[in-house]
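[recover] target loaded
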């Protein structure tokens, strides 16, 4: 069998294994040159399918060459690119180079869907078929989900999941459109796959995606920008792609929407305009690593201080891997309030949950605990108060038109442990949460809280988690904000935050209305004129 008439199962574009090739001196030199320069190899020998022109040589843009070189020179690469920028074609071209010129390497192509991963593998196979046979490796296997070459190198394609590459050893892993991997799966994947990734000294991880919310991809991207991890960030703007200008942008917005353009082409992480917290504020929120973290879901950001007061708000679930048990611990000693610890777990039994609450509440100076008692929460509050004998469980009672009010740790016979989240409680809590966060009256650096806030959107005249997301930690903050309106809270915190917010707003208004000269009001002299000469006095709802 010779190079000219050899075929792999009838495909004459593929060279089967064990077919000898007689190299010319020119081919040897060319082979060496290709092995040393991936960009040279890609531009000279790889062909791609263009939607307008069909099969054409891959003429790379400058940003695509930069992506290839960055992947080649570094172990960890994360790229943020707009839609239709040729990102997948660029990365799979490098993978083809990688398996051709590196013997016995294993590559995994993982995407949010298996069909997408196999489509990327198909691009590698198409480019491979149009290589000169003298530069090809013989084909050992050529399947829909994998290929194996004669030099021992292998590529597999699969959906991103916690078990996708478990038990294997891989030299290069591509995570395509990682921002679109469903919530939870991305985190599970990293916890199961990272030991495989980090086991070598030359292994590579390439993450490529268009942003979609503040998820695991966002977390890795921010940490890369701030040099808190080893990933090298690459960002491409839509204007870096030839042919895309202001006129093109206007056309895209007309055909879709400005919000969609921001996410898919401006690479804006915040996709929804219906979030409780403004998009501008959400973008400015930053997260950091806790000083302590355990395997059950507890994260501590500050150690308790002896002269500080703390409140814990608690949300409960049935522990069936859907909604989460969650609580937040807030330092209420001074404004801004500060979230100093969080907990989130969707596996723990509700009967065990009080045992997770108790030691944390004790550690934070016997923090006052407000438990949400809808559904299973009533049992959690009862076990915490009666079985574990934790005295600082807050009580509420219904006071007619006033609705639920906080009674503290003691109350009348009609008092109940915890609070029932009604529409009125949620409406007031959400309103204050928006004000507290946007005015920097409530500070937190927890990644999970920020992630939940991004997907906490308006639906049917109320705010709740978007489809496929959770809002358990956010609801703990909603309860805390409601609690801050109660008279008993003012005794605990020794301040009235609403009065402070009002006074600050009033000072800002007075600054904006600084008078000058003399003003003739024309009003009856018996009418009281305020000091600014405006003819009206701003009512103080708290005084």
């Amino acid at each position: 069998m010779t190079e000219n008439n050899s075929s792999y199962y009838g495909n004459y574009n593929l060279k089967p294994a064990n077919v000898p090739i007689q190299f010319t001196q020119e081919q040897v030199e060319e082979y060496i040159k290709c092995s040393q320069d991936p960009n040279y190899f890609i531009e000279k020998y790889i062909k791609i399918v263009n939607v307008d022109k069909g099969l054409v040589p891959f003429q790379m843009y400058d940003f695509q060459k930069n992506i290839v070189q960055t992947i080649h020179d570094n172990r960890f690469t994360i790229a943020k690119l707009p839609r239709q920028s040729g990102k997948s074609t660029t990365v799979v071209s490098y993978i083809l180079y990688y398996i051709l010129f590196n013997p016995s390497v294993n590559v995994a192509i993982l995407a949010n869907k298996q069909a997408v991963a196999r489509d990327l593998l198909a691009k590698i196979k198409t480019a491979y078929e149009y290589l000169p046979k003298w530069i090809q490796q013989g084909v050992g296997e050529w399947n829909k989900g994998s290929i194996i070459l004669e030099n021992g190198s292998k590529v597999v394609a699969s959906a991103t999941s916690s078990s996708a590459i478990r038990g294997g050893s891989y030299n290069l892993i591509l995570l395509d459109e990682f921002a679109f991997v469903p919530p939870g799966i991305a985190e599970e994947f990293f916890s199961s796959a990272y030991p495989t990734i980090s086991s070598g000294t030359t292994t590579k991880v390439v993450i490529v995606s268009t942003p979609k919310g503040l998820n695991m991809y966002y977390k890795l991207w921010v940490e890369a920008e701030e040099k808190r991890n080893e990933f090298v960030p690459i960002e491409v703007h839509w204007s870096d792609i030839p042919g895309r200008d202001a006129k093109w942008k206007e056309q895209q917005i007309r055909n879709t929407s400005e919000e969609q353009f921001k996410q898919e082409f401006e690479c804006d992480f915040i996709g929804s305009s219906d979030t409780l917290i403004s998009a501008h504020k959400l973008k400015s929120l930053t997260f950091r690593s806790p000083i302590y973290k355990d395997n059950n879901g507890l994260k501590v950001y500050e150690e308790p201080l002896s002269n500080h007061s703390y409140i814990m708000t608690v949300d409960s679930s049935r522990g069936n891997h859907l909604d989460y048990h969650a609580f937040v611990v807030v330092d209420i000693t001074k404004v801004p309030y500060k979230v100093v610890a969080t907990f989130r777990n969707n596996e723990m039994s509700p009967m065990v949950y009080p045992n997770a609450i108790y030691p944390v509440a004790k550690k934070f100076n016997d923090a006052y605990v407000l438990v949400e008692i809808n559904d299973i929460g009533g049992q959690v509050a009862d076990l915490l108060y009666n079985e574990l004998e934790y005295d600082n469980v807050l009580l509420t009672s219904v006071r007619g038109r006033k609705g639920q009010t906080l009674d503290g740790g003691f109350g009348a016979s009609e008092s109940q442990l915890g609070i029932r989240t009604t529409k009125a409680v949620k409406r007031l809590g959400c309103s204050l949460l928006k004000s507290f966060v946007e005015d920097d009256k409530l500070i937190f650096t927890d990644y999970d809280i920020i992630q939940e806030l991004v997907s906490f959107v308006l639906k049917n005249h109320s705010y709740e988690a978007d489809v496929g997301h959770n809002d358990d930690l956010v609801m703990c903050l909603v309860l805390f904000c409601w609690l801050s309106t109660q008279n008993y809270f003012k005794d605990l915190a020794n301040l009235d935050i609403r009065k402070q917010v009002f006074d600050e707003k009033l000072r800002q208004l007075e600054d904006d209305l600084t008078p000058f000269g003399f003003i003739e009001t024309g009003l009856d002299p018996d009418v009281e004129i305020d000091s600014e000469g405006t003819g009206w006095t701003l009512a103080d709802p708290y005084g």
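[recover] notes: The chain has three domains: 25-236, 244-271, 292-493.
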